[in-house]
């Protein structure tokens, strides 16, 4: 069964491609916090003793964690966006964009050094939407295969 890409599938590709800019933003954010805190490579996180002495070390840890959290989830977020886009390209592009904007906001607030104020609502709502629509899209594709 050949899969034809919907006419508006380039919107999905554009939204997915913009994750590169999210990654660059987060990388630069981590780099700046690393420099400010004095945490040297290859140390991944500041130790608790460093955090206790240096408030900038906590901000570095928070920035690093925000970036790593994105890297941990980006593969399945993109996969869900690509699958959703096969049936609902505008919805997929919108949800991917909301997820990206949510991650920017999450990173910004998390990097201020107070993990309780990092905020989850926008990207979690988008993530839930991608989960539901990717399952629906996959189900429709399987149904069309066997109908």
From TrEMBL:
Keywords: Membrane, Transmembrane, Transmembrane helix
Membrane topology note: Multi-pass membrane protein
Subcellular compartments: Membrane
Cellular-component GO terms for this entry: endoplasmic reticulum; membrane; nuclear envelope
InterPro entries (UniProt xref): MAPEG (IPR050997), MAPEG-like_dom_sf (IPR023352), Membr-assoc_MAPEG (IPR001129)
Domain of life, source organism: Eukaryota
Transmembrane domains' residue ranges: 12-30, 121-143
Keyword flag Signal: no
Molecular function GO labels: glutathione peroxidase activity; glutathione transferase activity
Official protein name in the record: Membrane-associated proteins in eicosanoid and glutathione metabolism
Source species of the chain: Dacryopinax primogenitus (strain DJM 731)
Phylogenetic classification of the source organism: Eukaryota, Fungi, Dikarya, Basidiomycota, Agaricomycotina
């Amino acid at each position: 069964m050949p899969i034809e890409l919907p006419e508006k599938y380039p919107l999905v590709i554009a939204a997915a491609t913009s994750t590169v800019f999210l990654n660059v933003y987060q990388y630069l954010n981590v780099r700046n916090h690393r420099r400010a805190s004095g945490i040297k490579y290859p140390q991944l996180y500041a130790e608790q003793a460093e955090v206790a002495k240096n408030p900038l070390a906590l901000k570095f840890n928070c920035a690093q964690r925000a970036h790593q959290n994105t890297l941990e989830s980006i593969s399945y977020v993109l996969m869900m966006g690509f699958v959703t886009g096969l049936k609902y390209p505008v919805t997929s592009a919108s949800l991917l964009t909301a997820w990206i904007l949510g991650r920017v906001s999450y990173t910004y607030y998390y990097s201020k050094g107070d993990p309780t104020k990092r905020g989850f609502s926008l990207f979690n709502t988008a993530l839930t939407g991608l989960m539901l629509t990717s399952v629906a899209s996959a189900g429709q594709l399987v149904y069309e295969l066997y109908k």
